[in-house]
Amino acid sequence: MGEAFGEQLRPQIQEFYHLRVLNALAQAKQFGGRALTEGHLLAVTEKCLGVSESYDPEGYAELAGIARAANLTVAQGFAMNGLTDLRDVLAWSDEVPGFESRGGGEQKEGEGCSSFIVQGNKTATGEIIAGQTWDLATDNMPYVIGVHRKPIGAPETWSLTTAGCLTLIGMNAEGIAVGTTNIRTKDARPGLGYLSIIHKAIRQRNLDDAMACVTTKHRAAAHYYWLVSGKERRAAGIECTATLHHTHLIERGHYVHCNHVLAPAHKALEGAPPKPTESTLCRQSRMDEMIGDTAVVDAATMRLFLGDHEGGEGAVCRHDIAGISSNGAVVVEPERLAIQAVQGLPCTEPWVDLITAD
User: Fold this and answer.
1) Is pLDDT above 60 for 28?
2) Most exposed of 20, 203, 209, 307 (fewest Cβ within 10 Å)?
């Protein structure tokens, strides 16, 4: 399965790898004050491969197949998949060869991911709706794709991801849906990449098993993960640093998470000041306000909210703000096995049903 993916998109994967390397090194300089090379990145990546393989042999084999077919090494494939983790490791970890102390960079406006979970008591259908925007460097947008996977011994999956990468945001045929927003904490270290975690979680058949994939002790860096089980009508948000996690069960109402730490125990670890940025505070407030002020929502309502422009540069839908854009978005209704996604700006680009698109 991985080799088919890598062979089909070989030129795009090679291009995307080089873009990701440049981004990782630039952000290591910006956030950690460290001038690093691709060699430093791959040296850190090599430290991640063993724990990744032991954590999820099937997912690791798929990643290795993608890399091999795209004429990359496994380390290069992992580096491309784990960009948002590895750039935090490069910026702050003591385990970067030749850099024993943390640098002195500063945080600027960055990613703009805005996620939500709405429980059934607040939806028109009585079923959970979840989703998010996914924001990263504007030049990444052409590499955003939908992928339908049919793994052996696990449910088939539909996801939004990027060329050559494992699952980013998606749903499986058992109604388990998973997504993520990026946060930054200074306890980053070589370990499991966030896409490896999501890729294993989305192959599970119940929420507890999916959550256990996230709360593993070997994470490389910080992320927030949202997880939903349509069959069980259960939902959870898990905010993770590399070494800590906090689970929030969403039993009624709604829950929004953007790009800053919400768990009090994690705040001391958050990345360089200002923390959090004005953008993530604006988006958190706006999404919470839009959902809270609407008596009941449906999937169409949530797609509109993900394309909202209130707040200017702090808007949910971002148009090349400081080089960052809303590269895609997803809305899932896991109980009815519905997943819609958009490549590019959710305010203007067409939404596609990933299941019927096959």
Assistant:
1) yes
2) 209
